[in-house]
Amino acid sequence: MARRRKSEGQTALVTGASGGIGLELARCFAKDGCDLILVARSAPALEAVAAELSKQHRVQVHAIAADLGKIGAGAELARRLADNGLKVDVLVNNAGYGDASAFATSDLNAQLGMVDLNIRALVELTHFCWPAMLRSGKGGVLNVASTAAFQPGPFMAIYYASKAFVLSFSEALWEEAHSTGVHVSCLCPGSTESAFRARAGTDKVRLSRIGQMSAAKVARLGYRAFKANKRVKITGTKNTIMARAVPFTPRGIILRLVRYLQTA
Questions:
Q1: Residues 115, 157: contact at Cβ < 8 Å?
Q2: Does this model's pTM top 0.90?
């Protein structure tokens, strides 16, 4: 008889799952026998990933193409899941984007889009899934934030602020779920090898030259932290030291340092 894998019988919904950290997190869940609901904007890329993970790990994988940044997209996704009888045991809120630019010269739609995707959609999907998790006393939420969450970010102001929201929200939910059996974890990676950097424009700034971690390693660390119900996981020793030092460093110095790192 085949050995039962740890997450068999559960289903994880992963947003932003067509590449980068989202794809690697989906791999982690699938390897443990968890069925998947994968959500991203690109249908062809998503379907290719779904076919690969289903074949490799012998799990059921549903691919749903959706732009969660659109107003009402989260509610529409929730309706599609309910109509198809798909339950969500674990929600992985990974979808998000950044924009490296001075606020004065930035595109307003891009800035508001970050708020819609990085914050609103995350809250909307969590609100849909959360009550059932608490009733069942299992599963949980894994939110992907960033080391950007620990300080303000000149020249990337909205992105840093959005990730600060995700971190604060996650920690609050972790406490609300205390003793329920529901896990909550916030993954805070530093610079990561993925398509995110090119889209955000951060591949050209000093911060990107400090050192990067592979998306696969970030995902493995985040997955283990979620399974252990670790409230916050910062990836990498250097990133951890820098993030934890922020409260003990004068704010003006932090702002000047981030300004320097966020410019070319």
A1: no
A2: yes
